[in-house]
Write a structure and sequence with these properties.
alpha+beta; globular; 7 strands; single chain; seven-stranded mixed β-sheet; 5 helices; about 170 residues
């Protein structure tokens, strides 16, 4: 395979103007990511809570979430969001990372996590943590990138529960 066939990747901070793009990516990734883990009703409920334009605007403007958009050959292919945890101590939380199903398995997720790690390091981050459903096959992906299971956490989302691992990676 020649190197010219590899897509050109760019990762840039998203702005409020990128909310429609984030929603398009979420629509394409959300259901395939969760369909074997939680019920259709729970998927739909959570999506409605997290991915309305108003909710995304609040995450960016009020909650201090930084969104990064990944483009492959100029086309949106994934995104991540993260923020500093209020407790301080240099702990940041990766809230979201999604890659289009058609682009998975090509290293894009690793590129996006590395961009999050680099950005958080630059602003004083010492630790990056994330929540992942205890039945999500992505656990092995996170472990390959150096995340370790830190604790279990059960989170109510409306009438539903997310049964997660909190995974952590030291950025030193």
């Amino acid at each position: 395979m020649s190197s010219s066939s590899l897509p050109v990747l760019t990762i840039q901070p998203a702005t409020l103007a990128d909310i429609p793009t984030i929603i398009q990516l979420a629509e394409a990734t959300w259901e395939p990511t969760y369909r074997f883990i939680v019920s259709k009703e729970q998927i739909e409920y959570m999506y409605r809570v997290i991915y309305t334009p108003t909710s995304l605007q609040r995450q960016m403007s009020d909650d201090g979430h930084t969104f990064l958009l990944l483009h492959a050959d100029g086309h949106p292919a994934g995104y991540a969001s993260f923020s500093r945890l209020p407790a301080g101590n240099g702990i940041f939380k990766l809230h979201k990372i999604y890659i289009l199903p058609s682009h998975q398995g090509q290293g894009f997720g690793q590129n996006l996590i590395e961009a999050v790690e680099e950005t958080t390091r630059q602003i004083g981050g010492k630790t990056l943590e994330l929540n992942v459903n205890r039945h999500n096959p992505a656990i092995s992906f996170y472990e390959r990138l150096g995340f370790q299971r830190h604790r279990e956490e059960d989170i109510a989302i409306g009438p539903y529960w997310m049964n997660d691992y909190v995974m952590r990676k030291e950025l030193a």
